[in-house]
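Reviewer comment 2.1 asked that we show a complete input and output for one of the modelled complexes. We chose the zinc ion case, as it is the one discussed in the main text.
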Amino acid sequence: MSKYFPVIGLEVHCQLATQTKMFCGCEVEVNTSPNKHVCPICLGMPGAMPVPNKKAVEYAIRLGLALNCEIDLNAMWTRKNYFYPDLPKGYQITQTGGLPVYDHPICKKGSLEVTLPDGSIKIVGITRIHMEEDAGKLVHDLSPEGSHFDANRCGTPLCEIVTEPDIRSPEEAVLVLQKIKQILEYTGVSNANMENGNMRCDGNISLRTSEDAPFGIRAEIKNLNSFNNLEKALNAEILLQTITLDAGREVEQCTKRFDTNNNKTIVIRSKEDAHDYRYFPEPDMLRLVTASEFVEKIRKTLPELPDARRKRFVENYGITPYDAHVLTIDRDVSVWFDTAAKVCKNPKILANWINSELLREVKELEDGLAGVKIKPEHLAALVNLIEDNTISGKIAKQVFAEMFATGKSPENIIEEKGLVQITDTGAVEAIVREVVLANEGQFLEFKAGKAALKGFFVGQVMKKSGGKASPGLVNQILDKMAAE
Ligand SMILES: [Zn+2]
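Response of the prediction step:
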């Protein structure tokens, strides 16, 4: 454990799920032939005039409202000037600019909640959310002609979410990023798939000597593309800064990348400041004036967000806060549970089945929950069949495996395989008597008070009945016979 206290802030870039680009009508399509979707606007040709995409603005506002932000009805576009071979325009249109006079992002002063491992709630401030356009892509495929340039991504819409430096550990940073991903998915603003690059995260981190000391000098680690890498990179940087400070040296303000192979952060640029980018107001566009009615219309269509859904699951279905947390991490899983729980006699048991059996199997599937053949109503029916004693819990596992493989209803499987539980007292008693006769010695010991033998007899009866005898009934009959 480091003797220093980390201070962490995140910058999360996410691709907005619009049909077209930020300032032109070109389609946004991934995994297509290179340079298929380009025009003079997204290539920045002379005289081309950008026009903001209304859907992208709507999505940015929707995200801002979901993160409790104030919406700036008079936001400003600025130009960030720099050279890079993936940027034919030589600048990016954004909503940031260093100087307060240029700094009018569409959303600011928001917050989000995370539940810490000890169950307490932590509020993390959102400094701002601004819109910008993405650059193109360089493809380094080692072909003899050298690297290639693909402009399909030029001008696709992004939102950048910047948190306050309120985060105090790499574990907390992961929780914050998870919450942002959840909100992006629930609001439908972005596909938020980190593996596909829909979402990437930069982490700013500095150390200080006590919890109320001034902030130290920070390093910024760019382009972290998984929760795991975010946590590892922050831990690696804490170690590095600890060594530096312990040696009496100063941490250097810099931009870094994370080398996953060596678990190290590596400097890619030394100190850079906003003024290096020569920001100025975008001359081709007016201020982004938004009607308050437009904002209110978006507010009314906000879906149920993860925190609210988690609370509703606890209140309406009586499941534990932990189960509700697990069930709401992924929006699709939460919808699946909700659909099933509405027709289930025991949502608590249903939650167990989803969190243990179903989600374990889902992990093995290539397309996750989408690849599951079981219908939510069918899993609810399975739980109902256990509840009304039609089948035992043990048989239910067998039925579940069959449902998972075939997508058939539990009723069909039980009928086909003759798995209905034997609840007829006479029939179960006959099996119990057979087992007792075959094990008379043990039964006498059981009768004399060796209670541990009960499990043996229940096991034997279940085996003999092919798992179909009602365990409750077997127990009752054994108790009765022991007392005779
Ligand atoms: Zn275009």
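The first helix runs from residue 54 to 66. We note this here for comparison with the apo prediction described in Section 3.2.
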